[in-house]
Amino acid sequence: MRVSKLFNKTLKEDPAEAEVVSHALLIRSGMIRKLSSGVFTYLPLGWRVLNKISNIIREEMNSSDCQELMMPIIQPKELWEQSGRWFVYGKELIRLKDRHDREYCLSPTHEEVITTVVKNEIRSYKDLPLNLYQIQNKYRDEVRPRFGLIRSREFLMKDGYSFNRDEESLSHTYQEMYEAYTKIFTRCGLNFRAVEADSGAIGGSSSHEFMVLADTGEAALTYCESCDYAANMEMAVHGKRNYENGNNGKLEEVHTPNKKSIDEVSEFLNIKPELMLKTLVYKAIFKDDEKLICVVVRGNREVNEIKLKNAVSAIDLNLADNEEVLKATNTPIGFLGPIGLIDVDIYVDEEVMEVKNGATGALKEDYHFIGVNPKRDFPKSSIVGDYHNVDEYDHCPKCDGKLSFKRGTEVGQVFKLGKKYSEKLDCKFLDDKGVEQHVTMGCYGIGVGRTMAASVEQNNDDRGIIWPIAIAPYHVIIIPVNMKNGDIVNIAEDLYKSFKEENIEVILDDTEERAGVKFANADLIGYPIKIVIGSKTLEDKTVDLKIRATGEELIVPLYEALGKIKEILL
Ligand code: ATP
Ligand code: MG
Fold first, then answer.
1. In this structure, are 228 and 128 located in the same domain?
2. Which domain CATH number covers 564?
3. Regarding predicted confidence, which is higher, 7 or 198?
4. How far is the CA of 447 from the centre of ligand 1 (A)?
5. Per-residue pLDDT at 300 exceeds 80
6. Is the Cβ atom of 278 under 6 angstroms away from ligand 1?
7. Which of 26, 41, 89, 384 is the most exposed place for a label (fewest CB within 10 A)?
8. 494 within 8 A of 503, measured Cβ to Cβ
9. Is the CB of 361 within 6 Å of ligand 1?
10. Do both 48 and 182 map to the same domain?
11. pLDDT digit string, tens, across residues 86-145
């Protein structure tokens, strides 16, 4: 390709709305252009990168016996009603009607369709296991589309689905996919971790997210510095923490005028925050109704709303406001506690149950209980579980090592779905005894555009993008510094021709721009190798070869340039 023919314009300024570096650089380098909020065009260079990632995915999927297919994006409402997700997906689902008023959605994911496709084709266990995937646009009306390709409303996703005869077979496929994903993200040159994750609205029993480490990441994660333990904060657990729990005390009501926060009460009563039993009230939203629930954690802990939401089996959880709390408990926020609380389900964090001499609100304005022993004093109907966040004072649950806390961007996820969709959509097979069984499913997604953006987040400098070779739009750019010098142009043209004959992905900057502009554009776009042809080439028949990633500069005899490039690209 010649830069003079390339459909590409670079920009000097960052777009005002770019909050992260990948968004700014992908726009400035002319890889993508915004059409409307969260909807982008991939221009030729960007599309090349996207296809390179797609092809790496294809190679790894195909070598794991997955088969590629292509399903419709427009999907009928009925299928989504059958799975129960027409309601659950809420406003994220883009819905539309045809001329006959029939309702459809634009697919955010394909479990419903693939399960229907497969159920009509398979008969017996001999047709299983089956692993199918596609690479296609998905549609999600995100509340806040942002960060360019990281959270958009139309985005390219590889989505795969496995169909197995039982859990054991699924575990095998899941492991294979986990390994394939590890290879894919390694080949894309990413620094990532596979973390244990919440399986969320999609349901299922087990899940890992592949997180690219980035300060701008939307998710918080923790991992052990000594072993392979890594988890999304939503799911993270820790080794047992040693607390002083106090000796058995007598339950007593004490006056705590105007002392509401944990710190205020703790100071006033001279009781450590970890012995203060913090009570919060949430409004839990279900499919057809909503109700208030309360949760109790130690005063030094934060509630983990995902763990709580899963325990409550709610679609959503929101902190209740003062008015709602007053109405339900007759007590203002600040003096809440579980002792004597009726008509509200009480979720008690497991760490709370060890306390012997703690304090909590007395369900009465300006009063707290001291001498609280939850095992003795809390309602017997309390639902005990892990509802708190791991923090920096905790240790690894596996090896007791030090935990690190980082942010990450999720680029892929693998789920064990079990029979959730096969039962709802009735996808069955005959087992080896001739008995009908529902298939056991898994699903496996990769955000292709998000992977591209995540790579830019990790590989850039003040001059622009630094593409890893595996996904660079072109590998080499040849820059003749002066187009008015016929000898320089001839050498550049000859080199370009010889590279093309050897199938090297090369681009020749044959524009009339100044050398400085050509260098700046090449660095902004992020080609891995730059070959400069200048007056030195005429003098001593050498070229200047620059490696974008390391800044290394080599003076190579002209006749050795091709060999050197091949060596670097190997
Ligand atoms: P998130 O939690 O970030 O909203 P998700 O868990 O809903 O993502 P999945 O349903 O697991 O996403 O989709 C598979 C992959 O698709 C994700 O790992 C991510 O890489 C990508 N993806 C999801 N939503 C978007 C989006 N709005 N824009 C770009 N890529 C996305
Ligand atoms: Mg996900």
1. yes
2. 3.40.50.800
3. 7
4. 6
5. yes
6. no
7. 41
8. no
9. no
10. yes
11. 988 989 999 999 999 999 999 999 999 999 999 999 999 999 999 999 999 999 999 999
Confidence label for 246 from pLDDT (cuts 50, 70 and 90): confident
Residue 423: left if φ>0, alpha if ψ -120 to 50, beta else—which one?
Answer: alpha
Q: Is 151 in the pocket of ligand 1 (CB under 6 A)?
A: yes
**pLDDT for res 205:** 53
What's the gap in Å between 156 CA and the centre of ligand 1?
10
What the block records as the tokens of 280 is 């919060």
- 353 CA → ligand 2 middle, Å: 33
Residue nearest to atom 24 of ligand 1 (CA): 151
Asked, for residue 8, whether it belongs to a domain, the answer is no
Q: What's the average model confidence in pLDDT over 453-474?
A: 97
| Res 519: pLDDT | 97
Task: Please say if the pLDDT value at position 478 is more than 80.
Answer: yes
Q: Please give the single-letter amino acid code of residue 111.
A: E
Ligand 1 centroid to Cα of residue 151, in Å, is 8
Write the residue with the smallest CA distance to atom 28 of ligand 1. 151
CA separation for the pair 379, 340 (Å, rounded): 7
Give the closest residue (by CA) to ligand 1 atom 16.
447
**176 and 64 part of one domain:** yes
Residue 410, ligand 1, Cβ within 6 A: yes
Q: What is the pLDDT of residue 249?
A: 83
Per-residue burial over 348-382, b = 16 or more CB atoms within 10 Å of its CB, e = otherwise: bbebbeebbbbbbbbbbeebbbbbbbbeebbeeeb
Q: Are strands 345-349 and 290-298 parallel, antiparallel or unpaired?
A: parallel
What separation in angstroms does the CA of 329 have from each of 104, 293, 366, 522? 44, 11, 14, 65
Structurally, the chain folds into a number of domains equal to 3
Does residue 413 have its Cβ closer than 6 Å to ligand 1?
A: yes
In tens, the pLDDT along 335-352 reads: 999 999 988 999 999 999
Residue 113 CA, ligand 2 centroid: distance in Å: 19
Residue with CA nearest ligand 1 atom 26:
151
Asked if residue 353 and residue 256 are part of one domain, the reply reads yes
Shared domain for 372 and 443, answered yes or no, is no
